[in-house]
Model the fold of this input.
Amino acid sequence: MRYDTVILDLDGTITESAPGIMRSAAYALEKMGRPVPGEDVLRRFVGPPLVDSFIRYCGLTEAEAMEAIEIYRERHTVLGWKEARVYTGIAPMLIALKRAGAYIALASSKPLPLCKETLAYFGLLPLFDKLSAPPYSATKADKEQLILDALPARFERACMIGDRRFDMDGARRAGVTAIGAGYGYGSEEELLDSGAQVYCPDVASLADHLLEGIPRMPGFFLSLEGSDGCGKSTQAALLRQFLEDAGYPVTYSREPGGCPISERIRDIILDVRSEGMSDECEALLYAASRAQHVHEVILPALCRGDVMLCDRFVDSSIAYQGVGRGLGDWVWEINRRAAENNMPNLTLFFDLNPDEAIRRRLNAAAADRLESEGDRFMRVVYDAFIGICEKHPDRIIRVDASGNIEQIRDRVRQIVVNRLTAVAKAV
Done:
């Protein structure tokens, strides 16, 4: 392993945080009746201590700058920090480092409570051994001291990764390798002139440098299941956005469908004009669609190390065709071949009382061929899903799908974050 200790800045290194910082700085200046500089100037607020930026770029006195910071925090602590997103590729890079046994720490001039809250929000906090950042009450933050505080008691090779000169200066003075994150808010010239020993223009090159000789995070296969009307597809879209914002490369797809050939098969299966279709034909078409989808979408995504997020998979065939249509174990056999023995690492079953699911379906748009099946069929399918959950408790987690969208969203996020970060411990 090239480094046994990896220290990172937050803004511009882990998170693309400019929107929230810039809007909050503008908010403070507007409330103080001071001119708001252009976007090019506001962008310079990312990275350095706020007091320095308000003085240097806005002509405020130190006392005025401290007032501006208080007003800035009115907005940023409530809204601004949530306007950030993690750079794509950071999360799997950190997981790979943790799996390899690296010590991972944060050294940021952002207040410690906000650092902790941001990392927790994106599910990254469990990957960090230490957070080094000033309290809200601090007016200055010395990057050298923050880096020194972040270091473990014993280490052999340490690096500091950051996107501004403060990070490089601090790393040099602290005696650790300075790595410039060129994808952040500092220029290549700024980083190299301030002492960057390694320059990485993007996250991919940073990962290549840090993970030399280290296995990458394996792909993670996540499927979502549930009866029609359970709200699964809504939650799938929300989860996809969250994972992308949290820095994971995500491939999203659905079944039946997900690629051109499979989508054509989907049209046949769900078309209300296919009412004369035999149960066996239906099951075989689902399996055929799945076989192409696995070959063309799922396996390539897993080979790339993506989070493969799939709206329905084999469990749906077992529930709908194996139990609902009464076709039995034969359905599993044809789908085992179609899936090439690839089953999800995690399946979320959105558990909603069948009566409530039926009520929702009645209020929905025009139903497809399967959604047009009677209430009895849907209750049989629900019971089948419960049986599948009980049979595979290590893979399938039941999610309470009652309540509002936000409540369900939060339940889902917590489950998924816990399982993804647990991968870091599965050495």
